[in-house]
Every structure is written in structure tokens, then in C-alpha cells.
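User: Predict the structure for this protein chain, please.
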Amino acid sequence: MDPLIILRRLSGPQFALNPDLIERAEATPDTVVTMVNGNKYLVCESLRELTDAIRDHRAQIIAMAEDMVVDAESGRVLNSGAQGNPPHLHEVAKADSPVVPIRSREA
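Assistant: Here is the predicted structure, written as C-alpha cells:
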């Protein structure tokens, strides 16, 4: 999973952007992305396409985290879910373990 989203500059070339560092985005009518450090980017994507890309990116991160299997003693990732259906966190973690699943699988 790449921690960046791919956008296209208004002038044409693609670039990768960390969506966690976006402060705001405006449609003026071109989409202007302002980063937390003040840098601004004009992108070809509409405001809707940009927000959809950010939402999808974050959903993928959450889905991957839910499928991770972490060893309760070492804290190491045993399986990331990319190879089929791994056991879930509650199946490998001890009762006194600090590892907590994002949401219960029984719900």
C-alpha cells in the first residue's frame, strides 16, 4: 500500500502527494490543494475526485489494518491479509495484550 495518492498537475505531469498533509482544497474553478506547510498545487482532478481519492486511500489503510495479525508478545506483524484469510487479531492476542482490533469481527 502506497502512502501517497497520485494526482496530475494542471500543467500535465503526475505527482504523488501525501493526503495526510493536506490542509485544505478549493475549487476556484481549478482545484487548488494547500498543504500544511503552505505549498499549493493546482491539479486536474475535481474537488470531488480528490476527496474520493483521499477517502479510498484511507479506507484501504483501515482495511489492511483490520486484517493484520500481530504477535501479542513481540508486536511484530505475522500476516498482512494479502495471502488469503489470516486469523484475526483476537485469535492470536493474549487476554492481557495491548493489541486491540479496530472493530469486532462478530458485529
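The CA atoms of residues 25 and 33 lie 4 Å apart.
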